[in-house]
Design brief:
Blueprint (H helix, E strand, L loop, with lengths): L2 E3 L1 H8 L6 H11 L4 E4 H11 L12 H13 L6 E4 L6 H4 L7 H13 L3 E3 L3 H6 L4 E2 L3
Parallel strand pairs: 1-2, 1-4, 2-3, 4-5
Helix pairs in contact: 1-2, 1-3, 3-4
Length: 139
């Protein structure tokens, strides 16, 4: 496996109406066969967003539908079939470098990518600039 997807990549993949869907779809269709995955947190975050009225423009999905979309997306042959990547015990030294509360989950993704020799695919500019050996945009 080569790629670990951030939620800002996974969620657009799940949502055909998302502005980033075509870009992410094309990238994963091209690169996904090298192997890709999401953390449990990203998988659940995608389901949560599908069920959220705010992110779904007032039309949230029911849990059954959201779970089906997320699990079906992981199984898509055109993307090389994704996997759930299980992270390990938090690396406290990494988290102590965080500048704010919003970075904690981002740093977790960095840790999981680092510990599994994966590239973190993200649109998060802070991660891209802070961890250039780990984070990459979907280009």
């Amino acid at each position: 496996m080569k790629w670990l997807l951030d939620n800002n990549i996974f969620f657009p993949l799940l949502t055909a109406s998302h502005a980033g869907h075509q870009t992410v779809h094309a990238w994963l269709a091209r690169e996904g066969h090298a192997g890709w995955g999401v953390t449990v947190e990203t998988y659940l975050g995608g389901i949560r967003k599908l069920m959220n009225p705010a992110t779904m423009n007032g039309t949230p999905m029911r849990a059954r539908e959201a779970v089906k979309i997320a699990s079906t997306t992981l199984a898509e042959k055109q993307y090389g079939r994704g996997q759930i990547v299980i992270g390990g015990k938090p690396d406290n030294a990494l988290y102590e470098t965080a500048q704010g509360h919003k970075q904690i989950m981002d740093f977790y993704l960095v840790q999981v990518a680092r510990d599994n020799a994966l590239r973190l695919v993200t649109r998060d500019n802070a991660l891209l600039s802070s961890f250039p050996k780990i984070a990459t945009p979907p280009i």
